[in-house]
Amino acid sequence: MSDSYLEIKNVDFTIGGKIKVKNASFVIENEGDTLCILGPSGIGKTTILRTIAGLENIEKGSIKLNGKLISSKDKHVEPEYRNVSLAFQDNSLFPHYTVEKNILLGTERNKVKKKKKLTSKEIIDLLDISKILKKYPHEISAGEAQRASLARSLLTQPDLLLLDEPLSNVDQSFKEEIQVRLKKILSKLKITTIIVTHDSYEAFYLGHKCAIILDSQIKQFDDPYNVYHFPNSVEVVNFLNRGILIPAKVTGENSLENKDLGTINGNFIKHYPKGSNVQLLLQPEDLEHDDKSNLKLEVVDRKFRGTNFIYTLKTSSDLLIPVFVHSHHEHQHEADEKFGIKRPIHIDHIVCF
Amino acid sequence: MVKNLNIWFLSSLLISVGVLIPIVTVFFSFFEETSNYYQILKDTFLFEYIFNSFVLLICVLVLTFIIGTTCAYLVSFYKFPFSDFFKWALILSFAVPPYIYAYSLTAFFENYGTAFTILTNLFGEGEYNKHIPKFDGLIGAVFSLSFSLYAYVYILSRASFLYQSQNLIDLGKSLGFSKFKSLYSLILPAARPAIVAGLSLVAMETLAEFGAVDFFSINTLTTGIYNSWITFDDLAFSNRLSFFLLIFIFACFIIENYSRKKAKYHFNSRGGFKQKEKIKLSGKKSFFAFLFCFIIFLLSFLFPLSQMLYWTIKFPENLFDIDVISLTLNTIYLVILSSIVLILFSLISNYGNRVSRNKVLNFLSTISISGYAIPGVILAVAFISFIAWFDENIVKSLGFLSIKKIFIGSVLGLVLVYFVRFYSLAFNGIKSGYEKINISVDESSYLLGYSKKKTFMNIHVPFLRNSLLFVGILISLEIIRELPITLILRPFNFETFATTAYISASEDLLEAAAVPSLFLILIATLFIMLTSKYILRENER
Fold first, then answer.
1. Is there a contact between B448 and A109 if contact means CB atoms under 8 Å apart?
2. CATH class of domain segment(s) A243-350
3. Any idea what the Cα angle at residue B138 is, between residues B133 and B144, rounded to 5°?
4. pLDDT value at position B262?
5. Nearest neighbour of A92 by CB, restricted to B1, B440, B463
6. Domain, as residue range, for B324
7. Residue range(s) in chain A whose domain bears CATH number 2.40.50.140
8. Whole-prediction pTM value?
9. From the list B448, B449, B463, which residue is nearest A95 (CB)?
């Protein structure tokens, strides 16, 4: 653990004397990795960033960056000496300077380091802000201000980059493109980054690791794939809101039984004795549509999501189950119609609680 | 927190404590021994002092309320000939300090004064003196103070009226209210916090006024403080009187602060705000609106200005009797020195507060700005008391030479007391500029590797440039007009326009007072015209 690039050990993250996240420990193993922090509003995600940046002190635990202790009860390296950059969620551009001057202020620090791998022009082009360079912060949109702020942070070439909801104000149509560009820049510059976001897809795309914060603690710290497919608690399932929990009974080494859906086969990720009553995680992609199936459920709602539809189906015990169907599927079902589910049901990895 | 104990915190703390010293001295002096004069005065004039102060206060408040709110109402809600001119011209009365207004009033209405000359020129020789009213004594003081100070009520109520939504006016109409009923049942109550804030400032200035009440020989608490010190050499008693006056003033200060908080709330609640359109007046209504504003402008500014100008032209020899260049240089010297000191220390103190986020420091800063509420006479006396005590008990006991001469009767002492008196102007002016800088701007700066000093110099100072200029001009305006502190603490043979005017007037040489008064009005007018843009823009935003 001591060889990790960033090491947070037993830290209480506090703001205004109030503990937001208790006794947190996590690491970023390698330089250039990205960690995404997910959690509901007000849980303390920003406090974590502010503390790592040195804007808040800690009374317990320690923070080490690149092997150097930067925060503990007895030691506090001031923010200006950490070479950690934080791009705030709100507009923190200097109001009396143009966007260009604001961005170029970011280059002052890296003049000393001489490890420039991308010029300011390249970053300006990548984030598509060349048209607003001569404008003042009050003359640009919130999304443009966020990109300008991001450019300034990237230009400092920090040892650690902290981004607080970096794309929350960026237009939806442009967001995915910026995500792709941002990932490229971070990878090219090999900047170690922590991103706070409420968008789980953004976190899954950008992060090498994800941390889920719930109830004042880090509930899960894992790869994005595992966080999605192997959530470690009911709270994480509820927070991600990408599936539902239905009651089931373990009937064998690889099978369970639900009274509405019948037998469900698959691989348990954790062993449960035969006969156990469990809560099975059912995600939208776990069930397949089959018009010929004799397992029919009632359609309650249908949402069009571009590439697919999400049907909400009601079972005989009034459970509401989400199911994905490709949007090019030959026919669609309206509300109150019957919707067939392919049998036997097979789920690759069975997650139960 | 130990983290907060940095150079900024300590500088801020020192500045706040330094400003507080004369204020605290006044309170502690209350318990000191006084001479027999106290007993004599208690049995004779003390009641008169308090009574006169109170009557003066009430009369000035009523008059400034009527003038200030009526003018503000007319220029904010209606369009009539020259309404845009009156919008800013009505604040020019600030250029005429009450004592100069008092000189003008006396010069015009006295026996064989300007009014007499005008009547003689118009109608030939006659016994006009009997028919010309005399505005002296308490009435003279009430008029002088009201026409000089109504602009506080005018500016603040105008700002409040401007923020009143058209919806409020429409609401009055839909309820079938007449314009007058809308005014007293909707518009004035909505602007109440701003009006009270303006009146509180008028109250503080009235209680602190020295020049005009002294000129009209009215015994108020302020003149009592001055006389007990100058005439009876009883510093302890003047401190005791100061204590009484301070209680009066702190009551006003608390009311003003309380109202201001509400006013802030009022300005921020912009939900459903609809810009109101000014009503175009025509016919008689337009004429009367114009007439009212013109009369106020005439009486408050044109009248004293022309009276002083008339005398300067009539007695040109006075122009050569005073050393205009030396007076200008002295005034500029004081203005520049005090502005630099005030702005510099207020900036440091504001930044220290911002960086440290310390509750004790915040509290000290809040009470240290109360210096503005304390009359110049009291501050000057308190300063002398403190220096005398410090010299006697600390300096001499340590075997050093007396420091009295360094601080009393010197420019240094003068600037220090100006500092205490006008600290709140500078501190609050810069603070309002700072409130526009989000704290995340500071944090971004640190994260870009800027130290606190570099953040201060490279980020804050350039951003606050306009606020600093505005504050500098306001301070200059106050110092040009300031009388009692300069009078008490100025070095020997060091005069300003204000002290020269006062000395001539107190020797009954009103004609001689005209020249410095005229210069003072002209310079102050220039400064007001420079700031009016900021004042009006700030309020219209």
1. yes
2. mainly beta
3. 80
4. 47
5. B440
6. 2-26+46-540
7. 243-350
8. 0.73
9. B463
